[in-house]
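One thing: can you check what follows?
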Amino acid sequence: MSKPSALGLILVISGPSGVGKDTVWQTASACLPSFERAITCTTRERRPHEVEGVNYHFVSSDEFERMIRDDELIEYAQVHGNFYGVPQKSVLDRINNGLDVVCVIDVQGALRIRGLFPAAVLVFIKPPQGRENQVLEERIQGRSAVEASELETRLKTASWELSQVQLYDYQIENDDLQRAANELCEVIEREKARRMED
């Protein structure tokens, strides 16, 4: 058996708005203690249940623009009128020290990370098959009040994101939270075993 790779593993979890990316990760994280979440920076308003530095780093548009200029972000994208980006330093420090990191980000960001880190493992969380729009609409509306136009934009974006699933290494259907979290744990165990063999 070969020694493990010197670099840590980058796990990217994405999927459409309302699919439960964060919830699946939070549930699965108990069986993946070696992973630390990269906290994304965003210009969007904080939701009532969110905590600065835990869910996101909430920054002003000016601060986000400065981070772009100073090349402090591995990737960034504009999603639903707000900017989101993954800080470079925290991810690089971690993987360069052989530690694992998870990025819970949108499809645009996932594809950028794949370009920068071809060994990253990309996992797409899907809504229950046959009820995609219904489930996403219910979940989006259930977590905060959204205007009809914003809901329409999010559902259009979700349709595009669902068309990108073939670019991912794994797809997990979130029809049952615990099952989806268990499947994510199995995916990572498989990937870590594969890396040990390489």
